[in-house]
């Protein structure tokens, strides 16, 4: 598919759907995160979902007392579908290929952001133990998916 | 990154408008350069669109004619034309080599001339004095960032439709480009440059975009949670041993935190 920014992501098996906001980098080089539990962010310094390469969407597991859209992300099974609606009116449908959890200090940077020879999607949220000192979860849950179908506008 | 409550309540439509004005992502595309005229030359190239709209080009190839300049260009078009790298069937005159003219029909016109300094337009396509040279072992290394202002319109948007061609072969293996091997370059002649051997302009490698990656890579993990609800460890069922136990402990900690805060 040609490049076109995402506007909505839906995961039917989790009954989850969310509007997409743009995410860049913070001053410390880490990825920005959405400012609400409901929104999912698209990392704008990587390909758009449906186009060649890894598109990255991040959403909260919980935020300010509310469950996030990606609360159940770790329960996604291999083969599950993820639908992304794009600004050009087209729809990219992905199939989950694996679901993994990594400590944030061993984040698989190359696997998530590195080159792929197909249109790939990565969904990221938090998991594992909540560290009261850093006020962050220790792990990230990462869903890897690849484009299965493309529907034109 | 904290937003006021007012901003959090803006409707979804407004949030969609918050997507960047530039409709395309920063990204880095990978090009595998394949031998085109059985010279054994191969390579890789990376084209990275930076957030400022510049294009960073990196090329590493080997098996090129040693100690010789290699004209290299980004070919193709930004108008959706489907150009691609030719195979041997493009050798219309049957001399055993795909020439530049024969290849152009397949890989499109020069889009950017990958010179080492100065102009990068099509006009510099044959500026061999500003083209990178392979070393004595036939290795060629090139790196240049072309400013946004010097890029043809649509370069970044159509990055994945473009491809890269490196020219210069040593058909008679005498270590230099000469007229004896394949005669004069009719391509060079057609653009008004006489006396250039066909060896100098015949393509050596061609590569199409075969992969793409993020244009910039965030540091470390992603802070997608603040522990403000219970059960924030949905991965437990997929993990084993210690990590699963840590996950359970995390949920307990999260719940306790919540209890304290409320």
Question: Could you characterize the architecture of this molecule?
Answer:
The complex is a heterodimer of chains A (153) and B (262). Chain A is mainly beta and 153 residues long. Chain A has a single domain, classed as Sortase, Chain: A, CATH 2.40.260.10. Chain A is built from 1 helix and 10 strands; from the N terminus they run ββββββββαββ. Chain A has an 8-stranded mixed beta barrel. A two-stranded antiparallel ribbon of chain A has the order 5-6. Chain A is globular and about 45 Å long. The model of chain A has no long low-confidence stretch (mean pLDDT 94). Chain B has 262 residues and is α+β, with helices and mostly antiparallel strands. Chain B folds into 2 domains: 27-214, Superoxide dismutase, copper/zinc binding domain (Immunoglobulin-like, Sandwich), CATH 2.60.40; 224-262, no CATH class. Chain B is built from 7 helices and 8 strands. Chain B has helices at 5-8, 12-17, 100-107, 179-182, 186-190, 198-201, 241-261; strands at residues 27-35, 42-49, 55-62, 72-75, 110-113, 140-146, 163-167, 203-214. In chain B, strands 5-4-7-8-1-2-3-6 form an 8-stranded antiparallel sheet. In chain B, β1 (27-35) and β2 form a beta hairpin. The longest helix of chain B has 21 residues, at 241-261.
Topology:
The complex is a heterodimer of chains A (153) and B (262).
Chain A: E1 6-11, E2 16-23, E3 40-43, E4 53-59, E5 62-63, E6 66-67, E7 81-86, E8 91-103, H1 109-113, E9 119-131, E10 136-151
Chain B: H1 5-8, H2 12-17, E1 27-35, E2 42-49, E3 55-62, E4 72-75, H3 100-107, E5 110-113, E6 140-146, E7 163-167, H4 179-182, H5 186-190, H6 198-201, E8 203-214, H7 241-261
